[in-house]
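Sharing a chain and its predicted structure for anyone who wants a worked example. Both blocks are below, sequence first, tokens second.
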Amino acid sequence: SDPANNPTGAIVAAIVATLGSFMFGFNLGFTSPALPSLEWGTDAVFTDCTEWNVGADGGYTCKESVQGAFWSAIINFGAMAGAFTGGPVADAIGRKYAVILSGVPLAVGWLWLALDTVYLNLLVARFLTGFGMGMVTPSINVFIPEISPKSLRGTLGSMFQLNLTIGILVVYVLGDHLTTSVTVAPSSNPTNPTNYKTALAHSECNWRLLAMVGCGVSVLMMVGMLFFPESPDYLISMAQKCKDEEKKQRYEASAIYSLHFYRGAGYDARKELESDVKVPSDREMIMVPEEGREAQPCCERGVVVPMLIMLVLHAVQQFSGINAVIFFCQEIFTDAGVSDPVIASLVVAVVQVIFTVITTGTIDMAGRRVLLTISLAGMAVSCVGMSAAFHYKEVGERKDWLAVSSLLGYISFFSLGAGAIVWVLMGELLPLRARGIGSSIASGFNWSCSFVVTFFFSMMLTRLQGIGTFMVYAGVCAFGAIFVLLAVPETKGLDLAAIEGLFAPSLKED
């Protein structure tokens, strides 16, 4: 291979770093196989259920548990706190070490979850895994673009969403296989259903062993990241800010090594380094103002407009109901009358992976705006189909094919654009001088929206029924598609300066 163009280091580093997004998906999907065993059985934790569904094997799942809903949703609150932390930490200690540090609450939270039995303690453990998820999100989405060559930046950047979907698939598969055959006695749960009188032998998901898998992957990410150099952009920025000549030379030497590692041994790292030192990036001009020149404010049009666009896109992504669908996938199929919800959930996860792979390969050809519009419009139609499936069930005409095809369509269209492209646009639309704080604000806002959606989803499903719940989601998706057409610019083929010029014409004139 051409030694001047060998991105092997960047590819491997992106794979290891996105173990963090794998844990993102693993955490989102964890409740689907684990929740029934947490609600009822020999290792149940939640004790507030009063209304039950009867499973195919005679086991029970709670129809509405406030404890279960809050335990499921609290990771979003933790992730919101972690997201606001990730950006500043990445600026303070470096992108590489920010990714490593995010693995600490992930590993501790999963280990705690596997070993404890007290509900309040499990809430804290769940919060910690959420904090790690939130912290790793901006850290990865800053690290990967900075190590990636331009020709692979879109593909490697999309790996964040791809490994997220793989994490969901893996937790579904493991949840279906890491089971224990047990006999549940009537006294096993203090809030057993009133009609549960005799012992029942059935298979329970071993959610504690599943949590140990999460701990192991988190540790693997931390250890693996130790073998990669810091991102060259971060090292160059540190060299630019350094007044001590000896330390500056060490940063520059590290930056050259990093560029060779991620671009190839024959890459002209010195040329790029000298170019960056002579002409500081816009980010460094803002972070370290020159003598007699004040930093530009972050409340100017070139920052505010793309920031508002990103907040709307993140709100649409979450209020379209995607995390709620993943969290309660099996329950959705059960309530829709689908015969085997476990198999249906696995099929959903496989489809999600397949269509995310398609997005990874087409995002730089089709364009962000086109894919995102098609994605949201397709999600809206799929939500209408899901609502119709619930209607037919209510009138006594089960249409399993409509429920399954609509939900598969929803997941497919989400994976085609709304899943990955919102995160890609966050790195493209936000100007360099505001990217750190902006990515933290956008990520934190995303998770706060997710917390609201997840917490209220089961209650919405009970009160609005499936018909009303999915019609609400259809309306959000339709609004999102219109918003993208009217307000979101196409960034395909544009460099960062040109994109920034779309929102700050004075910069384009310069």
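Comments welcome. The chain has 22 helices and four strands.
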